[in-house]
Amino acid sequence: MSFSIADLFTQHFDEKFDLHEHYLNNQMVRVLRTIGYDRNYKKAIGQYLYDEDGNEYLDLLSGFGVFAMGRNHPTIIKALQETLTLELPSLVQMDVSLLSGLLAKEILATCPDNLEKMFFCNSGTEAVEAAIKFARYTTKRSRIVHCDHGYHGLTMGSLSLTGEHIFREGFGPLLPECTSVPFNDLVALEQALSSKDVAAFIVEPIQGKGVNIPDDNYLPEVERLCKKYGTLFVADEIQTGIGRTGKFWAIEHWGVKPDMILMAKALSGGFIPVGGVAMTTHIMDTVFNRMDRAVVHGSTFSKNNMAMAAGLSALHVVHEEKLVENSAKVGEDIIATINAMTPKYEFLKEARGKGSMIAIEFQSPKSLGLKAAWAMLEAANKGLFCQMILIPLFKEHRVLAQVAGHGMNVVKFLPPLTLTQKDRDWIVNSVEKTIADTHNVTGSIWTLGKNLAGHALKNKK
């Protein structure tokens, strides 16, 4: 009997939530069903998802940034199909691979000129783990400095650098000698570095949790302070890189040259997990300094042909379709258009971001009736107002988005870089209609708000 994924998908299409309840994380199923996100998606093309009834949804999550080129891009599919049929040798461990060499060359051509070497792994969190090890070995120091509210991954080393308490709770003790400083605070950073025992400062150029953008002088001063105190400057571009912010690398907005750039997500083309670290020759040659240390750090599946082909084809699509430029243009338009709404809507504080990394922040209004309604939600659970935005966006407008972080009133858009004028209009019109509805405290959206508050208070008990 032949084996067919298509047949399996057809035969079991209606079973996915039951399968997850029985064999995987049933709490995720509960969340989806509670907020009405339990859809059966049947197809995905570009920035769109399609459910079993043929309804089209605009995906502004893009797999947390994985699908920067959109889902199921035909160029990337063709490259992977071709790689499968060539019968190439892959993962010949007593050998080096051609495709990884080509991908390294392509990536480094996009990086600052001080970065001349690449290390490949399987994910963003593996890239962070590699950076920790490389920094410690290169500097012969042990401390790692990171930022409050930063996010760097969930394996033990990267989790030790992740600032959100909810991710860390109960998993300790974590990696020792990891120090947190406030983001965008140069005084605190210099105080931490001045002891001259810090191996690396690892920072997101724009923080993903909250979409926090630094002052113009922050990253240039970070570079200067790291050089002054002998600390390696590591830019975590796992989410911000490869066109996300309207530049190929977010660091380009500030013209800095870190000692390492960490990457993953979009490099996969949305198909094969791949991560990487771009670094100086000094770091590479220090870590891999003798023949008996040639395999001192690595990963079994890194540099596999499918991952490298995915990366090469993804970079081709980014350049060929001018997705960096499109990200900058459409993203700037969306941010400016939403900011122009602030005089009309008391709940709306601001839109911010760069390129296709966009945040919409909400605030307590001045009108007494609206202020009381806001206070009711905040008392039940801080940040609950955002759910009152996101659920109607999804149910009524078929726009899929997320909260930017725990306990904050910030909605985040992280769409594919392929958005069109149609998508831009879809987004701003849906956002305005939803925000306008929140200013009618007798409307149905506040019935949803009261229900959300009730559930939150019940869960607290």
TrEMBL record:
GO terms for molecular function: transaminase activity. Pfam families: Aminotran_3 (PF00202). InterPro entries: Aminotrans_3, Aminotrans_3_PPA_site, Class-III_PLP-dep_AT, PyrdxlP-dep_Trfase, PyrdxlP-dep_Trfase_major, PyrdxlP-dep_Trfase_small. Coiled coil: none annotated. Its cofactor is pyridoxal 5'-phosphate. The keyword Membrane does not apply. Keywords: Aminotransferase, Pyridoxal phosphate, Transferase. Belongs to the class-III pyridoxal-phosphate-dependent aminotransferase family. This is Aspartate aminotransferase family protein. It comes from Methylomonas albis.
